What does this fold into?
Amino acid sequence: LMTADGEPEGGKWNFDKANRKSLPKEMAPPPPLRHSPDGITKEVLALVEAHFPGHFGSLEPFWFGVTAEQAVQSLNHFVSEALPHFGDYQDAMKEGDPTLFHAVISPYLNVGLLDPMEVCRAVEEAYRNGSAPLNAAEGFIRQVIGWREYVRGIYWLKMPGYAETNFLEASRPLPEFYWTGETEMNCLRQSILQTRDEAYSHHIQRLMVTGNFALLAGMAPTAVEEWYLSVYADAFEWVELPNTHGMALFADGGIMGSKPYAASGKYINRMSDYCAACGYDVRKSDVPEACPFNFLYWDFLSRNREKLGRNARMSLVFGSLDRMDPEKRAAMRSLAETFLRTFS
It folds into this structure.
């Protein structure tokens, strides 16, 4: 996506600000291309069912492609049907729609059925022939050439010691509901049950729902990383561990990103329809019916102020914390302590 003069198309290196829209209620994204399992795949599914019947996940329906030809078909389907809206709504989440405008080709990329440059060229061509807008093409290509390769570089540069870091000294165990989905928090329930049924969730569900909750709750990085590695069809350690360890949990202290991706329930409410059907109130933060993401967010900042307080990118949120009524801060701390004891 470069001009003949060596400048970025559109005059900017990224268009992230154009890629943060919530999904309109009337919009119906196209489903990804679903492949019927062949004879060998059916044999493997039967083998898995026989030997691992109690493991997390659902074998049926199995719709991933298993050949290079099927992977290319899935790529072409995404480019023609979903890419035009991918940029605008790549961060959106909707109950009952696990894929929205996402490509769902990461399993094919990570097992070698698709070549990353082949994927990027297909998306670039869609932009150049006018069938996809720049913010969609740039956002997708940056995820592949930019972020995916950056993550691989971090892994090979910093491992194995990287996995042992625990900057925030997080130690809480993974709650049982990460394996069952049995929680009153609808965003987590939807994301976990979708993961169980599809072996897939998109990057915002992984980062800002399951990952954000693990960060705010202070869960042990090794436990969280084991879960992410176990439940997704595209999970290989080189791509899973840095994303979880560095980006979601900030366990590396800022090697991968300059600040934690910590957020309250407001972000989830803005980018999804999950909160409308939740047992908690996303508008509240210091009463028992409040969204746990809200009081956990402020408690996370208080607990980790010594480590994060001098981070320039967090000065505004710490300023807000300082201006907050002391009684409200105390109420949220009490709620957080009580809530976290329920799965410790």
DSSP finds 16 helices and no strands in the chain. The radius of gyration is 21 Å. Residues 9-158 form a domain with the Serine Threonine Protein Phosphatase 5, Tetratricopeptide repeat fold (CATH 1.25.40.80).
